[in-house]
Write a structure and sequence with these properties.
The N and C termini lie far apart (56 Å). This protein is an alpha+beta fold. It has five helices and four strands, in the order βααβαββαα. Strands 1-3-4-2 form a four-stranded antiparallel beta sheet.
Length: 107
């Protein structure tokens, strides 16, 4: 039996401006960086400083703009980065985002 995936945009329709706008949100950026480390996770398993419902919402935004794929696994909805797809569409973009050093927080 194959995996069932939630709808996501086709690779050709993913827009870099939409991806960058989505990842500009600090919560979504943290989700992307965590998924880069753990490969796949549900909203309840990600270590986030916000409610699970908020994480679920942000994962939905990331899926709708083409950054993550989400599969159905019983009641769970594990998500993973569309790393290979994004690399083909925007070479180096995801790698740059997840490896960027956050700015210093003071003078």
């Amino acid at each position: 039996m194959g995996d069932t995936w939630l709808p996501q945009p086709d690779l050709a329709s993913i827009d870099v401006q939409t991806v960058l706008a989505a990842i500009a949100d600090p919560v979504r950026l943290r989700i992307v960086r965590l998924l880069d480390v753990v490969d796949e996770s549900t909203c309840t398993a990600l270590d986030m400083p916000v409610k699970v419902s908020t994480v679920s919402h942000h994962l939905g935004v990331l899926r709708e703009c083409g950054v993550v794929s989400t599969r159905i696994d019983g009641n769970a909805r594990p998500s993973r980065l569309r790393r290979d797809d994004l690399e083909r569409r925007f070479p180096g973009l995801l790698t740059s985002i997840v490896s960027a050093t956050p700015p210093a927080s003071g003078p």
